[in-house]
Amino acid sequence: MKQLTSLLFTVCIFSYVQSAINLPEEDVGNGRYSIEGKVFPPEEQDLGPWQVDTRIHVNGGEYIGFIRDDGSFVIHNVPSGSYVVEILHPDYIYEPIRVEINSKGKYRARKVNYIQTSQVIQVPYPLRLKALSKFRYFQVREQWRLTDFLFNPMVIMMVLPLLFIMILPKMMNDPETKEDLKQISNLAKMSEMPEMSEMFTSLFSGGAAAKASSTSKAKQIKKRQ
Amino acid sequence: MGLLSIYFKPNFLGLLKCLNNLNWFIVFFSLINLSVCIYEDQIGKFDWRQTYVGRIKYSQFDTVSTAKKIIVATEENVLAALNLKTGQVVWRHVFESASAGNIQLLHVSDKVVTVTGSNPYLVRGWDSSTGVLIWEWSLTLQNDDQADFSEWWVQNNMLVHMLPMFGSHIEVSMYHLMTGQNRGATAKLPASWTNDGCVLAPPYYTCVSGEMKSQQLLSLDVTSNAVQLISRPLAEFVDLNSYDGSLRPVDGNSGLPAFIVDDKRIVMIKHNEFEVLKTAVFDPTGSVTLLDIANGPVVLQAWLDDTQGFSIQANSVSGAELPELRMADRDLKLPDPEISSAVCTKSAREQLVCRILVTGGDDSVHLMQQGGRVLWSREEALANVVAVEFVELPVSDLDAAIESEFDQKEAAKMYSSIWAAFSRRLQTQFQQLQTLVNSVQGEGAAQHQPLALVRDYFGLHKLIVLITDVGKIFGMDNLSGAILWQYYEPSLDTEGAVVFTRRTARHPPHDAYITIVGKHEETGNGLIISLNPITGTLIGERLLKLDVQLLQCTILHRPDNEKLHALILLDKDENVQVFPQSAAPLVENMFMYVADRSTARVQGYAIVYNGQSAIAVRTWLVRLGGGSQRIVLVQGKSATERVHSPGRVLPDRAVLYKYLNPNLVLVLTEGPDPLHKDVVVATCLDAASGAIVASQIHRRARALPLAVHSENYLAYLYYNDKHRRTEIATMELYEGKQRWTQAGAAFSSLATERAPGVERQAFIVPAAPAAAALTATERSLTDKHVLLALTSGAIVEVPWIYLEARRGGISEEGVVLPAYAPELPLPGDARLNYNLTVARPERIYAAPSGLESTSLVLTTGLDLFYTRVAPSKTFDVLKDDFDYYLITIVLAGLILATYSTKYFASRKMLKLAWK
Questions:
Q1: If you write DSSP's letter for every residue of B546-588 in order, what string do you get?
Q2: ipTM of the assembly?
Q3: For residue B559, cis peptide bond before it (omega within 30 degrees of 0)
Q4: Closest by Cβ to A138, choosing from B40, B124, B138
C-alpha cells in the first residue's frame, strides 16, 4: 500500500513537473511579436464580404485582428506569452488555437484543450484556419410528411380494421374465394368442432359417457392454463 | 375469467412497473432536451438589436465612392461607415476597448486610414466601400514618455507624425502611408517656444509664448524643408488684459489651417501669414469650423442660443453672411453642439447643397442639411448604458375604471344606492363593447401606429428605462425598441448610479415613480432624479441636488399611504435621510452595509427610528482578507425575488431544505499571496448580522466581476491562471433535512446559530464571459437559467442543471442529473442572439413578465439586444405557431360529417322501412 501511495506521489510530481515545463515564461519580455495566419472562407461563397464579418480575438478581445482580402491576418505588438486565438464569424465555427510565444521569440501553436491543459497537439504555425461547420442556431420545424402520417400507430390501428371491414365482405362476393373459404371452414369444422346434430344425438343417447369426456377436456384446458 | 386475471396479474404489474420506468425516462428525456432555441422563422419576432458606435471623435464624408457614406471614428474605439441617407451602420470595426484601440487619426481619401493605439501604434488602411482591411503596419516610438502628445496627419500620401518636446524641439517623421517606410530620418526642429498649450492646425504648429503682457503668437510649418517661423505679437489679435491663454483649433477637418484665439478671434494661416477673419466667434461655447466651398473658405458656427434654440450661421472670410446656410431650430435642444464635419457642394442649379454632422453634448448625432432640416439622428449615448430598469405599464383607462368599480373601498364611497352601481355597470359594459367595435374596425389602420402604452394581457409589454454614462435617461418600448422619451441632465455623473422603482403603475390614480441616485459631476455630492417612467417627466422630489456625498442608498420595503416606497440615503457623515420625510416612522428592521473597494472593509449599519428621525447605528465590521485584498464584486439577491419551494425532494422522499437567507451577500475579493501569486476569495456574508456563512478560496486565480446569486445558490467566475482558463464556481446552501424554523416563519439573521451545509462545484467555461445574469420570473416556479454574454458577441443560456453543485447525483422525483463533466457545453442553439453578434457586451438585465414562463432579457454594451426567454418552455400559453386554421378546419369538418351522416342514416332508415 505504501509503495502504491509513493508511486502515486511520484506520478503526481511528474505530471506537475510536466505541466510546469509546458507553461511559458511568465515574465513578459520587452520584445513585441506578431501572430500571423490565414483564414479560409467557408465553402459557400455567397456570403458577400466575409472578411468584414470575421474578427480575430486574442484572449477574448485583449488584442483584435482584422483580415485582409485574401484571408491573411497579423496581430501586431503581442508580448511573449500564451494566447488563445479565436476566429469569430457570426455563421461559421472555427476552432480556437492556442499560440505560445516564448521569451526568445519562438512560436508554438497547439489545439486548445481546457481540460488537459498540459496536453500538446501541435498545429502548423503560421496558422491556417478553416471553418469547421455552420452554427446550428435554430430548431428544425417538424414537417408534415405522408410516411410519418401513415406509420403513425394510431392511424394504423384505425386503418387496418377499416380494411378488414371493407375488403373482407368484398372478397366474400368473389365466387372462387367463397368456395375456398367454405372449404376452409368445412375443414375446420370437420377437424375441430363436432357437428351440432351429432352433439345433440350423443347427448341424448349416452349422456354419462359424453359428460365424462367433456369434463376431462375442461380439465385439460385448465392444465394448459 | 378469474383464472385469466390470475394468469395475467404478475405480468400486468410488471407492465405497470415498466410503464412507470418509462415515465421516468420520459421525464429524463424531456430534461435532456434542454435546448430552448427558437425556430428559424421566429427571427426578429421576439428580439431586436440596435447597433451603436459611440460618441463621435472624428468624422469625414466619403464623397469618393458611389454609395455616399460618413466614416466615423468614435470615443468607443469604433470605426464605422454610416449611410448618408438613413444613418444606419454600413460596416463597423470594433477595436480593443483598452488604450490599444484608441483612434488617433481618421483620414478619408479614396481609402480610409486610421492610426490606433498608444505606442505602439498601428496604421491601417481600409476599403471605404466594403470595410475590408487593405494594409496594416506597426510603429513603435522610442520615446515613450512624451508619446501621448503625438500628433498625426496625412499629407501628400505621407503619414506625418509630430512629437513636440516642450521647451526644446519638435520631432517630425514622415512615413510612406501604405508601407510605413520612413522617408528620411526624423527631423528635429529647434523650438524652445513650445508648451502644452500649443495647437496643431496641419501643417502649422501654433503656440503662444513669451513673458506675460508681451506674448507672441508663433506658428511653424513643420513639414516644410525650410524652417519659417511666423511670429506676431499677440496684442495684435486680442486684448492682453482679458486674455486667459486659451488657444484652440477649429472643429471639423477642412484641411484649412486655422485656430481660435481666446474664444474670440478666428485666425487663419495663409501664405505663411496670419490672417484674422472679420467674423468673430458668436458664442464661446459654440463650435466653429472652416469649410471650403467653391467661392472660397466659409466659417460655419453652431451654438445653442437661449432664445432661438439651436442655430447655425455661415460667413465668408470677408464677413458676409451666407443666408442659405442660416438655420435656427427652437425645438432642437442640442446641448454643447459641435460640428463634427460638414460638406457643401454646388448643385446643377448653382445652389449650395450642404450636409452638416453635428454632435451634441448628450452624445446624439444629427445630420442636417441647409435650411436646418434634420435628415437623421442617432442616440449614441445608448452605446454606454450603466443602469436599466424594466417598468410595468399602467392599465388602460377602461380597465382602470372596471378595477375601481370592483374595488370595495372605492365602490362604497361612490355608489350609495344599488341603482347607481347598476347604471355604472351598464356604462362600462357599453364602453367595452365600443372599444371592441373600434378595435375590429381599426385593425387595418392601427397596424402602423405604435402600440398604446398600456399593459397587455400577458404583461409582456413593458417600458425600459436606460441610464447612460453621459447622463441621458431614455424610456424605451421593449417590444419595438423605439425611444419614447429622453431626459438629459448634464450634471449627472452616473458612475455607480442606481435606479429604484418606488411605485409601480398598479396604483391608480398615483403615477408610477422611479428614482435615479447618482453623483453630481463636479462636487461628487448626491444627485437624485425622480421621474414618471411612463412619460419621462419629473415628479416628486424632481431634481434634487444634495449637499453631501452618499455612501449607500436603498428603498424601504414597506410602502406609505400613497403606495410610495421611501428612499433611504446614508451619507458620508453617517446621517440618514428619508424621502419623503413623512415615511421616517415606517423605518423598521432596516440594515445596510458599506463596502470599501480598496481595503475590503465592510461596515454594517442598522437604520433605526428614534421617535424623531431615522438614525444609523454601526453594528458590525468585517475586514475581508486582512487588508491585502480588494473587493471585486458584491452581489446580493434581488429585492423582489420570491422563492417557490423551500426545499428539494430527495429520491428517498426526504426533503433537503434550502438555506434561504434574504440578507446573504456574496463578496468576491482578490489579492496577492506570497505562495500562490494571486488568490480569489468568495465570502458569503450575512449583511444584517455580519456573520460569515461560507467561503471559498481559489489559488492562482484572478477574479472576474461576474456573479449570480439567487435563492440558495450562487455562481461566480474567475480566471484560473494555472490552467489559463475561465472557470465558474457554484455554491448551494442547505439547512439540511430538518427545518430550522417553523414552516412559514420569516428568516431571521440574528436568531440563527447554525451554519448551513454547502455544496460546491466548479466548471470550465470554454469562452471569455463579459457579463452574467439569471433569468427572472414572477413567482420563480420556472427554472432559472444563467445567461452569459461572451466577448465573442454571443449571449448563451446555460440551464442551472448544468451548474448544479449536486450534479451527478439524483434530484427530486428521481430524475438523474447530468453526470459531472468538467467543461460546460455552450452549443450554438443555446445562443439567444443567433447570428446577431452583440459587440462588446457589458451587462445583462432580466426582468419577469406577466407570464410565469417568460423572462425579458436586455443586453447592453456597444449594442443593445432584447429578447425573451422561456427557461421551462412556454407552458402557460399556446405556442405562437399554434395552427388555428387546422383545428378550425378539423372541427368544422367533424361537425359537417356528423350532420351529413345523420341525414344519410335517416334516409337509409326510410328506405329500409319502405322495403
A1: -SS-EEEEEEEEEE-TTSPEEEEEEETTSBEEEESGGGGGG--
A2: 0.83
A3: no
A4: B40
Contacts of B264 (CB under 8 A, 6+ apart): B238, B280, B281, B284
CATH number at residue A98: 2.60.40.10
CB B129 within 8 A of CB B138: no
Is the CB of B3 less than 8 angstroms away from the CB of A117? no
Low-confidence ranges of chain A (pLDDT < 50): 1-29, 208-219, 221-225
d(CA B813, CA B655): 11
Which candidate from A55, A115, A137 shows the least CB-CB separation from B37? Answer: A137
Cell output for B361: 453634448
Domain B55-140: assigned CATH number: 2.40.10.480
User: Cα–Cα distance between B669 and B625 in angstroms, integer?
Assistant: 8
Beta bridge partners of B81: B71, B91
CA distance B153 to B104: 9
**Encoded amino acid at B123, one letter:** V
Read off the pLDDT of residues A187-207 as tens digits, 9 standing for 90 and up: 766 655 556 667 767 777 655
DSSP reduced 3-state for B29: helix
β pairing state of A55-58 and A81-88: antiparallel
What is the spatial distance between Cα B134 and Cα B141, in angstroms, rounded to a whole number?
A: 23
Cell 513537473 locates to A17
- The span from the CA of B226 to the CA of B736, in Å, is 87
Q: Are residues A33 and A130 in the same domain?
A: yes
Strand, coil or helix: B19:
helix
Contacts of B54 (CB under 8 A, 6+ apart): B74, B75, B76, B77, B78, B363, B380, B383, B384, B862
Contact A64 B766 (CB under 8 A): no
Q: Are residues A89 and A119 in the same domain?
A: yes
Q: Grid coordinates representing B826?
A: 455552450
d(CA B259, CA B252): 12
pLDDT in tens, A63-105: 999 999 888 999 998 999 999 999 999 888 999 999 999 888 8
Q: Which three cell numbers stand for residue B273?
A: 501669414
What is the DSSP pairing of strand A122-123 with strand A107-111? antiparallel
Specify whether A41 is located in the same domain as A94: yes
Cβ pair A137:B834 closer than 8 A: yes
